[in-house]
Specification:
single chain; 202 residues; alpha+beta; Porin; four-stranded antiparallel β-sheet; 2 helices; 62% strand; elongated
Length: 202
């Protein structure tokens, strides 16, 4: 008789433990979820319009915040042509730009379809400067940059796995070099596609 009671107690404890683990996993899954976004940011370098393609991977906590890693690069390199009066030659400067960043979104409003938030990303990148003189490359320089972007954005959820968004903000270079700031500091305008990956992991 004692053995039967012992088995019942052990069975009850086992079932209770399984229930608690399932409940805890369900609670965690409701608090945390994956986040993935693709975006195009429209900006300028030295008054030349550029398109920056970016991707973000991260996790979201409840309806409060989202954070993770991002990567961005210029789709259309900037070409600047000018005549060097001192050397009396025609010169062409080509600028490429990419950077990796950490981002954090502060969610201000969220409903079934709409989400409004402020986002900041801080990253490290290496623009590439190439100088051509009479079609000959005479300089090829990489310079490390610390990039800070802050923007306000609004997203709309189209269906269970796809959304779209718009936003605007400013790109600020944290390096102390004035010439770099004058080159890369600029407003940004954002258009993006959002994929909600949690749908594919159910």
């Amino acid at each position: 008789m004692y053995e039967n009671q012992r088995r019942k107690i052990l069975l009850f404890l086992l079932m209770f433990t399984i229930f608690q683990q399932t409940h805890a996993q369900d609670t965690i899954s409701k608090k945390w979820k994956f986040a993935f976004q693709l975006d195009n940011r429209f900006s300028s370098i030295r008054n030349n319009e550029i398109t920056i393609f970016g991707a973000k991977f991260g996790i979201q906590y409840k309806k409060l915040t989202r954070f993770g890693l991002g990567a961005s690069f210029i789709v259309n390199p900037v070409t600047i042509e000018y005549f060097n009066k001192k050397l009396k030659t025609q010169e062409t400067n080509t600028i490429n730009f990419w950077y990796l960043s950490l981002f954090n979104d502060w969610i201000l409003y969220k409903s079934n379809h709409w989400e409004c938030f402020i986002t900041e990303q801080i990253g490290y990148g290496k623009p590439k400067f190439s100088k051509e003189v009479n079609s000959n490359i005479v300089a090829n320089v990489n310079i490390g940059l610390i990039v800070n972007e802050i923007s306000g954005q609004a997203d709309y959820k189209l269906n269970s796995w796809l959304g779209a968004g718009l936003g605007a903000g400013y790109r600020n270079i944290l390096n102390q070099n004035t010439q770099l700031k004058n080159t890369f500091n600029a407003p940004i305008f954002i258009g993006k596609i959002i994929i909600y990956p949690e749908v594919f992991f159910k």
